[in-house]
Amino acid sequence: MKSEQVKSGNSGAGPANGRALGLDALRGIAILTMVLSGIIPFGELPAWMYHAQVPPPDHVFDPEVRGITWVDLVFPFFLFSMGVAIPLAFTRRMDAGVGRTELLIKVAERGFLLAFFAIFLHHVRPFVLQPSDQETWVWWVAIAGALILFPIYTRLPATWSRSVRWGIRGAGFAAAAVLLSQLTYPDESGFSLYRSDIILIVLTNMAVFTSLIWMVARHRTDWRLGVLVFLAACILAAREPGWVAAFWGESPLPWLFRFDYLKYLFILIPATMVGDQLAAAMKQGLPSVLPDRSLRGATRYHATAVAGVAIMIILLAGLLSRQVFLTTALTAAIMAATLWLFRSPETGNDRLLRSILLWGAFWLMLGLVLEPFEGGIRKDHSTFSYYFVTTGTAIWLLASLMIWIDLFRGARWFSLLVDNGQNPMIAYAGMQNFVLPVLTLTGVHGWLLSVTGDPWIGVVRAVGYTVLLALLVGWLTRRRIFWRS
């Protein structure tokens, strides 16, 4: 049985059950490619198969390498998806009568749950418990850790009493505390707040700070742009000796927060602006599915759907090969031609896409103009160009997905991405804490390693593992089993 969201995507109405399925699909792409990038075998694969600054064959970090690869897009795409979702979620709660104090409590609760997820998950990962020569107990601990997370994060029915729901969550926390108290690590240490997943710690900070900024400047886009200007000034000033640099390097809770994490607001805050547009449109039932008679004549929509993907490919190929001017010119031409198709918007769908695409063009061109600054675009250490180019790319890809899924009735073709995008926490934990442990304990992983020694065959194996994870998460999603922070 398909999820209710996916089924209603074919209804001819607006967004399914108040969800933006195109955004779910983008989040699904981000989380699954994030998982895939972590299990691709090192070796003699082309440089574009890895982070640009960790090239083959040695995979030694080289900050002098310029350009980005598809691997460098997955994290900013996930951050962007989070930023777009914040106005959607908060607007829905505010419309339901939830007060500001209750929203602040929700932000604090979400920050705590994400931070706990980052710390606990990293403590029970097999390669953290034993980096080499893994023993059987390591894999069982990884599976146990995943199971413990279910009572903590599973969204329980609202019809259950509050005491029952909190009792189940409390039991999960108690089990987690017992497990953590029994574990030791290769350095002979035990539990540590500093042993955490850096990606999830950054997400924790971004979820809290972006939510607070949006709540304060909900109706003031200019204030949010002002935050970006002030943040840019702080980052630039911190590169020179002085009080700003000294302040920027300190933190009251270094295991949880560093000022350097705030740089990702350059992705999250622009994302909230797109989220504002989408939230306003969804109140009117947009984006709405096109009638059958309109599909063949929807030239601007077909062209835009292709343009979003084409721009991403051109940027990846052109910036990594350092054909910066040609890449900028081609990208600008495609965006200009696409926007020309929406020069006279006739429908609500037209106006929504035109607004989103204009923001995408703005951030993308800003990033490309800034590309020569700081020596060229790179993820590590990230440049201003990186933030804005990836943000603009995410916006144009989101527009493509909205057209295919929300306008062209394509939800069933993208259902696996949508399902995983609606359940990203399980997808993120599932590979190292369930799929790999199960395959290892059954001997399947060892056998596959022995017959997939060639790097490209190893890529096929990694894709197979990722699809297996996606199917598992999709199965849970269709049965309404979600992890939520």
Task: Give an overview in words.
With 485 residues, this protein is mainly alpha-helical. It has one domain. 67% of the residues lie in helices and 0% in strands. It is globular and about 65 Å long.
Kindly summarize this structure in a few lines.
The protein is mainly α. It is built from 20 helices and no strands.
Q: Quick one: overall form?
A: globular
DSSP strand tally: 0
Mean model confidence by pLDDT: 92
Using only CA atoms, what is the Rg? 23 Å
Helix and strand content put the structural class at mainly alpha
Strand content: under 5%
Question: Unreliable segments (pLDDT under 50, ≥5 consecutive)?
Answer: 1-13
> Helix coverage percent of residues?
55-70%
The biggest sheet, with number of strands, parallel, antiparallel or mixed sense and barrel status, is: none
Helix count from the secondary structure assignment: 20
